[in-house]
Write a structure and sequence with these properties.
The chain is α/β, with parallel strands linked by helices. It contains twelve helices and 16 strands. The strands form two sheets. Strands 1, 2, 3, 4, 5, 6, 7 and 16 form an eight-stranded mixed β-sheet that branches. Strands 10-9-8-11-12-15-13-14 form an eight-stranded parallel β-sheet, sandwiched between helices. The protein is globular.
């Protein structure tokens, strides 16, 4: 193939992506399919590469996956600089690069500033709840007040009829702002909890589903707060130093599920539990196998279920391809001759 035969690269802005893709049933199906392919072994997915920038409480993760049979795959670079909030800036940013599986040439640069990561992470949380939580969900507890705390609740509404919400954050004012926004945007009653351990414990004890959305490096949920029927989705721990669940939470759960067992062992909640509770790994199952019907999730209404989401490259390829299809269908993006 000569230089002149290469197709131009499509440059896509965050604004354009927001116009054509959002949390939706169609996007949920794409991410679910990717999880099933990962469980079936039809995926090449390397370990996450991470670059830490301690001086700015920052990190950059590089994730990718090729799904057999598809004509393109994504490489995603996602940054989290958690000192940004003090400057009034978002903590998350990044972009995705879509490559042709036939030629290896770049097809598109999706300059999403982390938007697509927000979408695919929220959809993974919705899939965890769809397959592990009880059918009837009255109260949802959200731990964290950032962007993902909002997306997770919106995605959960695709699979469960939420009646009310409780929210906990380290800052009471941010929790109050979150409550006001969700009440306005989703029409749900939201109760902010006090920014104390007692407030957090009350949230867990009163909720049917709890979702943790923080970069915490200390456990936020303790085992003695758990109750029959509870489902927890923990999506904040994606590095060795991060932790949202006390190790005994995993040991007490009737079902422990994760996106990938090896990744959870390396940098997720399983990583912290292995020293005291090595048996948890023996009983761990993957979300893809649950979706595919090859592993049993919740079997009784009283079960306590936990899903640890560390984030996978297969999710990024799924959402990047889905977004690019919509960009082309809407004649959006800017062609660039490389």
């Amino acid at each position: 193939m000569s230089e002149t035969q290469r197709n131009p690269i499509t440059l896509v802005s965050e604004r354009e992506l927001r116009q054509v893709i959002d949390v939706s049933e169609a996007a949920l199906e794409q991410v679910a399919h990717a999880f099933v392919k990962l469980a079936q072994g039809g995926v090449t997915q390397p370990p996450i590469m991470r670059i830490d920038v301690p001086a700015r409480a920052g990190e950059l993760d590089i994730k990718s996956a090729y799904i057999e049979g598809l004509d393109s795959f994504a490489v995603k670079m996602s940054s989290g600089f958690f000192a940004n909030t003090a400057m009034g800036l978002p903590s998350m940013s990044g972009l995705m690069i879509l490559f042709s599986s036939q030629t290896g040439f770049v097809q598109a640069l999706l300059l999403d500033n982390g938007y697509l990561t927000d979408i695919r992470t929220a959809l993974a949380g919705a899939l965890a709840a769809k397959h592990l939580a009880n059918e009837h969900v009255n109260t949802v507890g959200i731990i964290g007040t950032g962007g993902q705390a909002r997306y997770q609740l919106r995605a959960l509404a695709l699979v469960r009829d939420v009646q009310q919400v409780m929210v906990w954050g380290r800052n009471n004012n941010k929790a109050a702002i979150y409550a006001d926004e969700i009440a306005k945007d989703m029409g749900l009653p939201v109760t902010p909890c006090d920014a104390s351990e007692d407030g957090r414990a009350n949230l867990v004890q009163q909720s049917d589903v709890v979702i943790t959305t923080t970069p915490s490096n200390v456990p936020l949920i303790r085992a003695d707060w758990l109750h029959d029927g509870l489902h927890i989705t923990a999506m904040g721990s994606d590095a060795e130093h991060k932790q949202e669940l006390e190790p005994a939470v995993l040991a007490r759960a009737n079902v422990f599920c994760c996106d990938t067992i090896d990744q959870s062992k390396r940098l997720g909640e399983l990583h912290h539990a292995l020293a005291d509770f090595p048996e948890v790994e023996t009983h761990a199952i993957t979300l893809g196998n649950v979706i595919a019907g090859n592993a049993k999730g919740r079997t009784h209404a009283s079960d306590i279920t936990v899903c640890d989401l560390t984030g996978t490259g297969v999710q990024d390829t799924a959402i990047a391809r889905f977004a690019f299809e919509h960009i082309r269908a809407n004649n959006a993006g800017t062609l660039f001759e490389a």
